[in-house]
Design goal:
157 residues, five-stranded parallel beta sheet, alpha/beta
Length: 157
């Protein structure tokens, strides 16, 4: 079943907003696929065969959860991102656009913020692990672009 556009995190805040703009896209949620599991990601890519992916999926929480469950947030988000990008690479997806988070910026930075500042210092301690997992999504996207020529990019709201 070939679909042109697949959106992970399709029932999250941004995913729901995109449903109004791109109703023809396939929106997947964690109820359908556990993206922490490479087997679920393989099933998803094999079934939908998307040409394009907008990767919004993430384990999210508030500041309290981010501070209390740092290791869990880092692990889950790193697994999700790694599996989705590697799945897109294996299935020769034409383009992946992944959404980062504003928390990726360093705590001590100059305003106005620019993309070049993303990796220049540590993020705020309240989001430390989550922010680094999101930063690694940027690193992995760049690495796949450089080594494999994948059209994987990131955007920061």
């Amino acid at each position: 079943m070939n679909h042109n556009l697949l959106i992970t995190g399709g029932t999250g805040m941004v995913g729901l907003a995109l449903q109004e703009l791109t109703p023809e896209a396939i929106f997947v949620s964690s109820k359908q696929y556990d993206l922490r599991k490479s087997s679920d990601v393989e099933k998803m890519f094999s079934y939908y065969e998307p040409e394009y992916v907008i990767h919004l999926a993430a384990k999210v929480g508030g500041i309290k959860a981010n501070m209390e469950y740092m290791a869990e947030f880092y692990l889950d988000n790193t697994l999700i991102n790694t599996n989705v990008l590697h799945g897109a690479y294996k299935h020769k997806t034409k383009k992946v656009v992944s959404l980062l988070s504003t928390c990726v910026y360093p705590d001590d930075c100059k305003y106005p913020l620019t993309e070049e500042q993303v990796h220049n210092g540590v993020p705020h301690f309240t989001n430390f692990a989550y922010a680094h997992a999101k930063r690694m999504l940027d690193v992995q996207s760049r690495a796949y672009r450089q080594q494999y020529g994948c059209n994987f990019v990131t955007a920061i709201p």
